[in-house]
């Protein structure tokens, strides 16, 4: 059911594409933030909106059908550039840059601004769930083969402020097709959100 | 800790502000989608990026400090316009328009496109968690007073395709400061994601 496109892209070609499209997403992330926070007057908003509509039309003059998908290169690299959490071409994604330690711990430092707000000045609880679902899912897939969330439980011991945050996750147990992972989000004061997930090896990846 | 700003805004003034700023967010949502899907060449991307940076600078020439927050009017209306899920000024928000039936069922129909992708062609599991956290949270607060997620468990019986979706939630039980809520997301074929949450009445709202 899930189509992971395989394309014969060289490392140089991937880098060339990244250099073209990543800066655009960076700029649109800034625009998203400004759109929420601006207090300019109606005429200025209308003029800016017209410019944005023109920009969108230029970008749409040549575009793919549907969503970006996940492209895999023949060398085994995975390009999740449209992904809602890590996609370098997706302005909605913070985007998370997840690191792996030799001991199997996955972690990232990231910053969440106005676009991720729920309670005043704080991260939307669902955004914390979004981040943790992704970080736990990466930790569940140390061989690079995807595992999918079977279930995840997220607990909120404390409201999570917007700003600089840290997330990490680690496998706690593997039982057949089920991989159990735990993780958390923390700020400078300590843990704000915790999660436990069960990730499933898809049928087509089972031995 | 949470500052809900109270402002003396009339219904007419709120409507005037909505008419100015909502269309801008609608346009930026389209731009987000186009940014992910475009295949235009490097020169066009660079020109578009310059236009977007100029638009952002104009919007930022007069902007609030920090995030939008949640403004409450003296008449008791709540303006969560920056919210990551329902914020009409937030281009990241789909945004969800949640309805309440007389029997206490909360529901919404919505559409998720390229910006919400995880597995190819499918909704990111964390985005489903984000949506459900919000819809369950609304259902937990039928008196309009906020309740905050204590914990939420999300189960994924089936991969959720991008496109037209439906979500709903309902209180199953109230026990002191804890409100228990269940809900789901479905597509035309049936349920794709289920959630159970415990929502907590904050200390400052308890009798």
UniProtKB/TrEMBL annotation, chains A, B:
Subcellular localization(s) per the UniProt record: Cell projection, Ruffle membrane; Cytoplasm; Membrane
Main location per the UniProt record: membrane
InterPro entries recorded: HotDog_dom_sf (IPR029069), THEM4/THEM5_acyl-CoA_thioest (IPR052365), Thioestr_dom (IPR006683)
Enzyme Commission code(s) on record: 3.1.2.2
Membrane-protein topology: Peripheral membrane protein
Keyword Transit peptide among UniProt keywords: yes
Organism superkingdom: Bacteria
Catalytic activities: hexadecanoyl-CoA + H2O = hexadecanoate + CoA + H(+); octanoyl-CoA + H2O = octanoate + CoA + H(+); (9Z)-octadecenoyl-CoA + H2O = (9Z)-octadecenoate + CoA + H(+); (5Z,8Z,11Z,14Z)-eicosatetraenoyl-CoA + H2O = (5Z,8Z,11Z,14Z)-eicosatetraenoate + CoA + H(+)
Pfam families in UniProt: 4HBT (PF03061)
Domain Thioesterase residues, every copy: 121-191
Key words, A-Z: Apoptosis, Cell membrane, Cell projection, Cytoplasm, Fatty acid metabolism, Hydrolase, Lipid metabolism, Membrane, Transit peptide
Protein family according to the UniProt entry: Belongs to the THEM4/THEM5 thioesterase family.
Name of the protein this chain belongs to: Acyl-coenzyme A thioesterase THEM4
Lineage of source species: Bacteria, Bacillati, Actinomycetota, Actinomycetes, Mycobacteriales
């Amino acid at each position: 059911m899930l189509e992971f496109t395989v394309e014969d892209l060289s490392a140089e070609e991937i880098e060339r594409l990244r250099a073209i499209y990543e800066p655009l997403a960076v700029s649109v992330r800034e625009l998203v933030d400004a759109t929420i926070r601006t207090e300019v007057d109606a005429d200025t908003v209308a003029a800016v909106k017209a410019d944005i509509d023109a920009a969108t039309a230029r970008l749409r003059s040549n575009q793919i059908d549907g969503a970006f998908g996940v492209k895999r290169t023949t060398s085994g690299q995975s390009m999740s550039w449209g992904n809602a959490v890590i996609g370098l071409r997706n302005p909605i994604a913070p985007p998370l840059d997840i690191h792996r330690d030799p001991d199997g711990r996955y972690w990232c430092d990231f910053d969440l601004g106005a676009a991720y707000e729920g309670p005043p000045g704080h991260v939307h609880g669902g955004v914390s769930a979004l981040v943790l679902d992704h970080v736990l899912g990466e930790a569940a897939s140390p061989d690079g083969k995807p595992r999918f969330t079977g279930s995840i439980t997220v607990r909120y011991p404390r409201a999570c402020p917007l700003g600089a945050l840290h997330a990490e996750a680690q496998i706690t147990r593997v039982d057949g097709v089920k991989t159990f992972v735990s993780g958390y989000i923390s700020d400078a004061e300590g843990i704000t959100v915790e999660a436990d997930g069960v990730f499933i090896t898809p049928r087509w990846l089972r031995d």
